[in-house]
Write a structure and sequence with these properties.
Layout: E1 2-7, H1 14-30, E2 35-41, E3 47-48, E4 54-55, E5 59-60, E6 72-75, H2 86-95, E7 101-104, H3 108-114, E8 122-123, H4 130-136, E9 141-142, E10 148-151, E11 154-157, H5 162-175, H6 177-186, H7 202-205, H8 212-223, H9 231-238, H10 242-253, H11 257-275, H12 280-286, H13 292-303, H14 307-314
Parallel strand pairs: 1-2, 1-6, 2-5, 6-7, 7-11, 8-9
Antiparallel strand pairs: 3-4, 10-11
Helix pairs in contact: 1-5, 1-6, 5-6, 9-10
GO molecular function: DNA-binding transcription factor activity; sequence-specific DNA binding
Domain HTH araC/xylS-type: 215-313
InterPro entries: Class_I_gatase-like, DJ-1/PfpI, Homeodomain-like_sf, HTH_AraC, INH-QAR
Length: 323
Amino acid sequence: MRTVLVVLFDDVQSLDVTGPVEVFHGAETASPGTYDIRTATLDGAPVRTSSGLTLVPDLALRDLAGGPAPHTLLVPGGQGTRRPAPELVAWLREHGPRARRLVSVCTGAILLAEAGLLDGRRATTHWAYCDKLARDHPEIEVDPDPIYVRDGRVSTSAGVTSGIDLALALVEEDLGRDTALTIARHLVVFLRRPGNQAQFSAQLAAQTAQRDPLREVQQWIIEHPEDDLSIESLAARARLSPRHFARAFQAETGTTPGRYVDRVRLERARRLLEDSADGVEEISRACGYGTPEAMRRAFAKALGTAPAEYRRRFRPVPADRTP
């Protein structure tokens, strides 16, 4: 039996709590006796979430002193983390190191950081607060890109729904892939988002450029990843010199044209591996890699796996399979 203790506080984000809890509850339903899920506030009193819901905890954190440490201590995020209660931070500083596994969702990472539990570790949080986390806690290696990061016994995740992805990964670690797949199907989500998936897709990034010519070029890249996407070709499409185009593109999107092209091609290849029966060679041509070897190198660099292994692991279960 693994105890999952979820810390609650005023102005917590309700989905940061209920998303992971539903995953662990699903695992307990599928394999009874595997998880004991508890929620707790400092004094045992109900709290009001940022959306106005009232959550009634099972117990008080203050009453846990001297008791057995939880297997998984989960700290959600929400508006309440922007003004952390010193007593809650002190409790986490004292009791967090005792938990076998320490997990944060969204800005829950801020509470872990305030308690010194992320010092010397790699971590992430919601993209809108990564800069603040890095600025306030230079001792933490903040990675703003992935949806979750696992560094030893400590796992941190990005905004809201990424907490579900991380919880599924933890259940898979504990109980195996089949149980995690059963839960994912029941919750009508795909067990397909590895932790190193970016918080922003290329399609979202395409909305950040201010000038129409740059947005049009971004959209062209998304629609034609197999074409010539060299700086010279893209600059001509934007009616700019290559040097001016490269500078303007990075200034307005926060990334270079080459990195944007790499992201688009990788996303397209991943979707085709997940959603089509096309072979690796056909997909590599359709995505602009040219050869399966080039696509393999891109996958190894970005995801740490080969295309064939990625397809085996992250392709959704067929629609006719029932939970």
